[in-house]
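Appendix B.2, paired examples.
Example (i):
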Amino acid sequence: MAQHGHSEVNYEDPACCSVPPSKHDYKENGSYIEIDGMKTYKTGPSTATGAILIIYDIFGFSPQTLQGADILAHADDEHHQYQVFVPDLFYGKPADHSWYPPDTKEKGEKLGAFFQGPAAPPKTAEKIPKIVKEIEEKTGGTIQKWGALGMCWGGKIVSMTSTEGTVFSAVAEVHPAMVDPKDAEGITVPICMLASKDEDAEAIKGFEKNLKVENHVETYPDQVHGWMAARADLKDESVRKEYERGYQKLLDF
């Protein structure tokens, strides 16, 4: 796995840092295990040979994210089932909802410290190979192929861990934060990117242009940043339909 030396980059993102998450109730289908000292959500049949690692957004284990994990694990037919894992990369201390919107100096400072500390992408990217290896060991060698899904902040992590030597066979990013067209140049596996109306359209366009692998890049023009994760207002029928369409697109890819 390539090393990721991006310490001088500002990892805050306007789309990621302006809107609070939606409130939503959902009872997950999976269970929790411990991986590399982290509480990790596990869902899907244990006999599945394909696995997906979800790198969540800065709000951690939101109900909408766990519901998405369950959809990916169980929605496809019996020939395309997946074991899906969502590690708690923030160790139970995700971004606080009270920081949103970051309209005061105190809120802004707390959010900035979070992105430079627990949510610093290089530090997280370094953990991914070890997480995957430990999951493989704990699942008895059933997993033969890996994919990854990054949400918002997690999209940056996926870009950083999909370079030469990656453990992933295919990856996806939904409403990605901190999109840098330069990252696309190093990606070595097929990628699906589903953007919202809130991301930088020029950055998304540049990212797509620089990709040298099979890809599907699509913008959902009537959806907000986070519509497939913590900001999904699934009580709104139009949002729910696009949420479901987005996950179906990932499965089709």
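Example (ii):
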Amino acid sequence: MPACSPSASTELIENDRGAQQQEPALQLALQVLHNLQYQHEWTNLQVHQSSPQNDVFNEDTDSSIASPKPLISGFPPQRIYVHPDEQVEMIKASIKESEMDPEPEWVLPTHIREKWSIKQMARVFDSIPFEPPSTPSRKEGTIDERPTNSESNRRRGGKRVLLATVGDDSTIVYYIVHEKIVKPRQN
């Protein structure tokens, strides 16, 4: 009987240079990246590793802080979150959510057995700017150079990450996590 061929996720991890020496957090990030790219059709995906040479520069605090885990950035096929104030404006202008351009998002890969504290989550938020830096624009393919420290360019509701929780059976569930309290959406 022929052996089963490896899954696409396994091939992705094994084909990546130095896969045998990679830490589990990076392998988890690659698994989530694969899921975002092939199951959810995200584009312009990048893994941001936490190393002294690769710390994320936070323009809001003018400092460099290492994230406790690798992060992923990219563009979803449609908008992930609409702030309640923006939702009201959309209703008044008769704009549908599907007509809005997607925003670049941060994704934090985690495993279901990991225990997260508020302090650990705060460190993740401290390590990132409001939007991923120098993100290629989804529509034009150009680099988005908007200043992230300008109040007019900040996304409403403050910083957020998409928490990607991988289960023991490789199922991935996504949760939106905000740095601060955000008022609820109106139905």
